[in-house]
Write a structure and sequence with these properties.
Structural class: mainly beta
Number of domains: 1
Helix content: under 10%
Radius of gyration: 14 Å
Number of strands: 5
Distance between the termini: 14 Å
Largest sheet: 3 strands, antiparallel
Number of helices: 0
Order of helices and strands: EEEEE
Length: 72
């Protein structure tokens, strides 16, 4: 598996578990041809949140772009 639904934040805070992590886009270093980051659309909400936001907590229910550094 190339990635999972857990995101660990660079500032050292606890990771987040996304309900969906989709649309992977690799970022390639032109000089080396190496993949350096993976960009994804992230959605932290629960299943059914399109119609019910009662369980979303403080984050609310909205999607965002997640950039993850690729470490070999």
């Amino acid at each position: 598996m190339a990635y999972n639904s857990t995101v660990r934040w660079r500032n050292g805070s606890a990771g987040s578990v996304l309900y969906r992590r989709e649309r992977p886009k690799p970022v390639v270093d032109a000089a080396t041809g190496r993949v350096t980051y993976l960009l994804n659309g992230g959605w932290p909400c629960h299943e059914g949140a399109e119609d019910d936001d009662s369980l979303d907590g403080l984050a609310g229910c909205w999607s965002y772009t997640v950039g993850t550094e690729v470490v070999e």
